[in-house]
Structures are given as C-alpha cells and as structure tokens.
Write a structure and sequence with these properties.
The complex is a heterodimer. Chain A is an all-alpha fold. Chain A has a domain of about 90 residues: Cytochrome c-like domain (Cytochrome Bc1 Complex, Chain D, domain 2, Orthogonal Bundle), CATH 1.10.760.10. In chain A, about 50% of the residues lie in helices and about 0% in strands. Chain A is built from eight helices and no strands. Chain B has a domain of about 25 residues. Chain B is about 45% helix and about 0% strand. The longest helix of chain B has 27 residues. The chains are: A mainly alpha, B mainly alpha. At the A-B interface, helix 3 of A face helix 5 of B.
C-alpha cells in the first residue's frame, strides 16, 4: 500500500518533468546537427542557386537610390554601426579598433578618396579592400549606397567654409 | 471501560489539523520558489562557452553596436549569431596568436561554425520574434540586461511566461524612444510614466490583444 502511494506520487512528480513540448525533436535556427560534416543544422543552397530576392538585390547594386535626407540619416546610422569602429566617427581612420592595434585605414578626407567616385566606396564595402573584410553579408546594397552618401557628407563637413553655412557665424564664440 | 482517547490524542489531532492545511501550502510555496529560483531559470549563471567571449570587452570597451554582429535583429525573428568571418574581421589582425582564439581560427580554416551554447533558450512552443520588439520600442537591455558589463554572458531575466506577460499586460513602463533601443545603459527617466504613454501612441501598440494566446503560441 505504502509503495503504491509512493509510486503514484513519483509518477505525478515526474509528469511535471515532461519536456517533449519544451524541446521538440526538430532542428532550430542556428541549431546543430551531427548528420552533416560542418555540424550545423542549416544547409547552404547549392552553388549557383538564384534566390527569389536576387534580381531585386542585383538591381539595388546597380542603381544608386536618390540622395535624400532620409537616405543620409540611414547612412549615418549604418556608418556608426559598421564603419565607425575602424574608420572613426568623422572618417579620419582613427576608430576604437584602430586605437587597439588594427592597421589604420586611409582617411576619407585625403585628396585621393575625395576624388574617388561613389562606386569605389560601394565596391570596397561589397568586396573588402586590403585588410578590410567584405561587408556584403552585413550591409545590403541600399544601405551601402546610404553609407556612401554619408561618407560624402563627412567629406563635405571637413572641407566646408564658413560661407557654406550662413547661420554658423552667429553661433561661433 | 478504558479511555477511548489517550492523553496525547488532543495534541495529535491539533497537529494533524494544522498539517492538513499547512503542508500543502508550504509545499506549493516551496515548489513555486524552486521554479522561480535561479536553480530553474538559470538567471545570473554564466554559461560556459567554447571561447570565453566577453560582451564587456566588445561592447563596453570597444563600443561595438549590437547590430555589428547580431545583424538580423531588426529584420528577422532571430537576432543572428555572427559567422566566424565577422570575428575575423578584426581578429585576422588583432590577437592573431592568442590561444584563447584558437577555436575561432580553426572554425575559419575548417569551415565549421563555432558551437556556442545558448544563454536564452525559450521553450519550443514559444514563437518569439526579435524584430517586432525592436521595431516597437523594446530595447535589447530590457530583456538581456546591460551586456556591456558582462565578461561572460548570463541571463538577467527569468524568461518565464509570467515575466513575458508582466510586460505584455502593461508595456508602457518598458518602452523607450527609437534612438535608445540599442543603448545598453538605458534607464527610464523620472518622467517616464508620461513618456511611456506617449510611446504607446507613437508605436501604435494595441494593448487589448497583446495577451492573446496566439500572440506567442501557435
């Protein structure tokens, strides 16, 4: 009798430990799986696969969007996330990662990069350059153009004259 | 005739009566305490990782934005774990011989992703989506804490259903302006009650359906 009661209580207690719903037998995003050599559950599409979004992606690569304030602001945000760690907030090539020993990238304010076409910056983001890795997987084409627009704004900011900002004189000490 | 009740009977009867009420209460309270304790929720316990990655260093010292590595957080359900090439963006040049980073270099050389261990693991029947929270004023640190102060990543919130509902029932105190979403140090200001109401309107949050079962379960 005593044993039966204990067994009943144990069964009740164990019923609360059923985790079959909590951890379902499925492969989760970023999950691992031992059936593939690389240990990841996710599979890469075969080489040459064209994704449904690829034509739009290609189009965005080729055609720069119209430069608007919104685009430059988007570029500012993306620049601060992905570029500023090395290139610095103002584009002088003195970001925090550089201050910690990464080779210093050229300043955007050099004569060479001020004369460089927009396509050059876009291509460097896409393919990388020197020790800079490609950012193609992190920055989609439209954001790359936005960053290029913001780099232009940074370049202008470092070579502006007082005449470019009529209201600035009153604010200067 | 012998006494039916011994002298101890009254005492035993009182103990039994008290126990009938108190034992279930104490037992339920105890189980509840265990369930909400770090023993069950793993709150505050750093999870061992193949590489002792420090958010305190990368976010706190270097100042990287969350999205530098967690690129999917604004657009998809999963915040995204960085591929090894993201680590190597810097570590191809920095700490290139550090023993601590040997698994990163090995991962790149062999094309085998690093097996990180989950810190925040929701039950499989919860369909959580990062992007919808990010787009509606819930910042990273509201759930993940200030990672810029975590040498090893740990949970700071229990991630129980009760905890989820505490915000879904009354989101206003937890909302922040768009510019503060990725700020790991954000804290509500003194006037946040009023701001919270304004943010509810700004993000267009409909409180009536936030606690529907199908919001999180399908």
């Amino acid at each position: 009798m005593k044993a039966a009661v204990l067994a009943g209580l144990a069964a009740l207690a164990l019923a609360g430990c059923d985790v079959s719903m909590t951890d379902q037998p499925r492969l989760d995003t970023y999950g691992s799986s031992d059936i593939w050599p690389d240990g990841a559950a996710a599979r890469r599409p075969p080489a040459g696969t064209v994704s449904q979004s690829d034509p739009a992606w290609e189009k965005a690569m080729k055609r720069p969007p119209a430069v608007t304030t919104a685009l430059i602001e988007r570029g500012h945000e993306r620049y601060d996330i992905y570029c500023a760690p090395c290139h610095g907030a103002s584009g002088h090539g003195d970001g925090m990662v550089v201050r910690r020993g990464f080779p210093s990238p050229p300043s955007y304010h050099s004569a060479r990069l001020r004369a460089a076409p927009a396509q050059h910056f876009f291509d460097v983001i896409t393919n990388g350059y020197g020790v800079m890795y490609s950012y193609a997987s992190r920055v989609p084409p439209r954001d790359r153009w936005a960053i290029v627009a913001y780099i232009r704004a940074l370049q202008l900011s470092q070579h502006a004259s007082l005449a470019d900002v009529p209201d600035a004189r009153e604010q200067l000490p | 005739m012998a006494q039916i009740f011994s002298p101890r009977a009254t005492t035993i009867a009182v103990i039994v009566l008290v126990a009938l009420v108190s034992v279930p209460v104490v037992l339920i309270a105890y189980i509840y305490q265990v369930h909400s304790s770090p023993y069950a929720t793993h709150v505050g316990i750093p999870v061992a990782q193949p590489i002792p990655f420090s958010h305190a260093h990368h976010v706190g010292d270097v100042g990287l934005d969350c999205r530098y590595c967690h690129t999917g957080v604004e657009t998809s359900a999963f915040a995204g774990l960085p591929p090894t090439s993201t680590c190597m963006t810097c570590h191809s040049q920095l700490w290139t011989n550090a023993a601590m980073l040997a698994p990163v270099r090995e991962s790149l050389a062999k094309g085998k992703p690093i097996r990180w261990n989950r810190v925040h693991d929701l039950p499989d029947y919860v369909y959580f989506d990062h992007s919808v929270h990010i787009a509606n004023g819930v910042g990273c640190s509201s759930c993940h804490g200030d990672v810029s102060k975590m040498p090893l990543t740990r949970k700071v919130k229990p991630l129980t259903m009760g905890w989820c509902l505490s915000c879904h029932e009354n989101p206003a105190p937890h909302l922040r302006p768009q510019a503060e979403i990725f700020n790991p140090h954000w804290k509500p200001g003194p006037d946040h009650e009023k701001e919270g109401r304004m943010l509810m309107a700004h993000y267009g949050i409909d409180k009536d359906h936030l606690t529907d079962c199908s919001v999180c379960h399908r």
